[in-house]
Amino acid sequence: MKKGFSVFLTVVLLSGAAFLFESCGKGQPSASPNSEVGLVFDVGGRGDKSFNDAAYQGLQMAKDSLGIKYQYIEPGGGSDRESALRQLANQKSIGLIFGVGFIFTDDITNVAKDFPDKKFACIDYSYDPSKPLPPNLIAIEFREEEGSFLVGAIAGLMTKTNTVGFIGGMESPLIRKFQAGYEAGVKYVNPKAKILVAYAGVTGEAFKNPAKGKELALSQYSQGADIIYHAAGVTGLGVFEAAREMKKYAIGVDLDQWNEAPGYVLTSMVKKGNVAVYDIIKQWKENKFKGGTAEVFGLKDNGVDFVYDKNNQPLIPESVYQKVEALRLQIINGQIKVPTQ
Predict the structure, then answer these.
(1) Which one of 19, 20, 178, 325 is at 20 to 30 Å from 195 when CA atoms are compared?
(2) Which residues lie below 8 Å from residue 103, measured CB to CB, with a gap of 6+?
(3) Which H or E run includes 186?
């Protein structure tokens, strides 16, 4: 075996789920107990160019800077989530397990209770302060409404038709936070603006339907919207197709989505799931993992933001950028309270 870095991948089909192991190191025959990280992706899986890819970036960051090994599973359907978590928890080598997405809330809570010797973390956990978390589980939450407020302000300041749109994936309390923040931002800077709202569905499948996303976006553009913000996972890729077709603007989510429609992506509301995954892994690696708690990432924590770089700077006037930056400070300082509903 050559010294240095080696990576190997193994794909196995388990109960309809794609199971992948990626290792970093010198290729020892077996890993020590509780030394690896496991992760189960949300609907859409790797390659969604959004939420799941952000989580995967966090794994990669931890591999590169902390030297961790990891495994991940992409469920084939909703019923696979709990079984996928249990597959990882049953492996002696895995000590920390992530569930990616609010749909994991009940499943990861149950599995954490059944495996008290393992650590768990859930991104976008639907946290209820009245219900204590298992002591080995961290709930990771974001103030999506704050970042959405800022991109809403951009849309409100830049619309030429005084009509903008919002397209959500699964209608749920989490995605309504995106909607509420966006609407509040639009109305704060442009009280007369009209906001069209549509959702792709009421189940997890609503996050992986680009055709539906395009259909909804074309409808909103035809009703006068010249800017549409999506919070819809893979479904949002259809929004970008519609933007290119209609030569209108779209606003991306979770990651910088400029490359999905260069010239037509006004900005993206960046939700730094990669930073959250990395931070939790680092805590675990340093024996500082504190379960039974909720960690919340907002503007103040640099957990959410909007994209303003060399690509989209020509699209956004400097005066608009400066106004939105002033709003950022008012949110951080508590002068503006952004609604979540």
Answers:
(1) 325
(2) 42, 43, 78, 81, 204
(3) helix 173-189
H-only helix segments in 227-272: 236-246
- Pick from 298, 304, 306: nearest CA to 323: 306
pLDDT at residue 167, rounded to an integer: 98
Tell me if residue 134 falls in helix, strand or coil: coil
**DSSP label of 291:** -
| Residues 6 or more apart in contact with residue 79 via CB below 8 angstroms | none
pLDDT by residue (tens digit) across 167-191?
A: 999 999 999 999 999 999 999 999 9
In the numeric block, which tokens belong to residue 317? 């006037």
In a 13 Å sphere around the CA of 76, the CA atoms on its Cβ side amount to 9
* Structural domains counted in the chain: 2
Q: Domain range for residue 67?
A: 9-142+273-297
260 with 278, same domain? Answer: no
Q: Residue 176 and residue 274: Cα distance in Å, rounded?
A: 22
Rounded Cα distance, 261 and 60, in Å:
26
User: Are 87 and 156 in the same domain?
Assistant: no
Helix axes 173-189, 144-158, angle to 10 degrees: 40
Q: Are 130 and 154 in contact (CB under 8 A)?
A: no
| DSSP letters spanning 224-274 | T-SEEEEE-GGGHHHHHHHHHHHT-EEEEEES--GGGSTTTEEEEEEE-HH
Looking at the fold, whether 200 and 315 belong to one and the same domain comes out as: yes
Q: Tell which residue, 101, 265, 255, has the closest CA to residue 170.
A: 101
Tokens of 114: 């059944």
For residue 136, the domain's CATH number is 3.40.50.2300
Residue 190 sits at φ, ψ, to 5 deg, of -150, 80
Which helix (H) or strand (E) covers residue 22, if one does? strand 17-22
Angle at alpha carbon of residue 30, lines to 24 and 31, rounded to 5°: 60
